[in-house]
Amino acid sequence: MSPTTAPAPPIGRNTAAMGVRATARVTAAARAGATVLPVLDGDGPFEFRRLRSRGTEARVCVVGAMSAPLGGDRLRIEATARQGASLHITSAAATLALRGPTAAHATYDVHLTVAEHAELRWLPKPLISAAGSNLRQTWTIDLAPTARLVLREEQVLGRMGEPPGHVATRLTVRRGGHVLLDQEADYGPGAPGWDTPAVLGHHRTTGQILLVDPDFDENPREPQVLTESPEDGQAVLTPLAGPATLITALAPDGLRLRHILNAAYSTSADGSNRARK
Q1: Which Pfam families match (predicted)?
Q2: 270 pLDDT tier (thresholds 50, 70, 90)
Q3: Phi, psi at residue 116, to the nearest 5°?
Q4: Lower CB density within 10 Å: C or N end of the chain?
């Protein structure tokens, strides 16, 4: 190496100014009455593990290979369900957003594509926003007109006994090229009014389940309050302007939030299944 040649950057987590750049990809395809995974490429902090299939559904677990996201990281997952495929994605543990070696925010982008007559279920563990963290998370979802989607996302604002970090989220869903849902949320230090009665109040966890199903065109759901005690958490089912239903919930802690969302999803899924019969 000549005196003027700079050394190559180390592999793995880069300098404080750069953070980790990683894009992981999974693709599901229908084949011979089952769903196979022709693409299963982990990257950076993301490793994919095949789980035992259930019927025609292929199942994948996202396993964290390093602490992430930290400040300055740029992380992305791309998942595609091709025509007729059925894909279920979960995670081995909660995602923990931490303060990094730089003041720059981290990004965590999820891009889901679901083709005709395909189904994708995105059901990871919660995101925990630790004190001092700063994360921008996005979901960008493109659905064919006959596609089905179940998407769950949960945020836990702060670990036990600590204040939360800052997390800004955006969820954009397009069906047949038209926008079905486009929403943003902002929680933690620097977010106006996030802990007031107009937003979360005393609650420190929030989440939602989005169900997109062509059957809702013929059998739309009715708006419904799904909980009885606001102090223990609240959940509301809202039909969207399209074949979709959005369940939104908030609760004092992650365990209660998961219980509320599970109960709300069971109620909604039972109604959808009855409508199909």
Answers
A1: UreD
A2: low
A3: -60, 135
A4: C
- Give the dihedral sign, CA 33/34/40/45: positive
Question: Which residues are CB-contacts of 88 (< 8 A; sequence separation ≥ 6)?
Answer: 54, 57, 58, 59, 60, 120, 121, 123
Following CA atoms 104, 98, 73, 62 in sequence, which dihedral angle do they give, to the nearest 10 degrees? -160
φ, ψ of residue 69 to 5 degrees: the values are -85, 140
Indicate the helix (H) or strand (E) that contains 270: helix 254-276
List all residues 6 or more positions away from 129 whose beta carbon is below 8 Å from its beta carbon.
97, 135, 155, 156, 157, 158, 164, 165, 166, 167, 187, 188
Q: What is the b/e burial string over 67-96, where b = at least 16 CB atoms within 10 angstroms of the residue's CB? A: ebbbbbbbbbbbbbbbebbbbbbbbeeebb
Mean local confidence (pLDDT), 213-218 = 90
Q: Distance between CA 272 and CA 139 in Å, rounded?
A: 24
The token pair at 268 is 């909604």
Provide the pLDDT for residue 65.
78
Work out the number of other CB atoms within 10 angstroms of the CB of residue 217. 11
DSSP-based three-state secondary structure for 268: helix
**Pairwise CA distance, residues 49 & 198, whole Å:** 41
pTM of the model: 0.87
In 3D, which of 96, 108, 93 has the Cα closest to residue 140? 108
Amino acid at 249: A
Closest to 58 (Cα-Cα) out of 19, 18, 88: 88
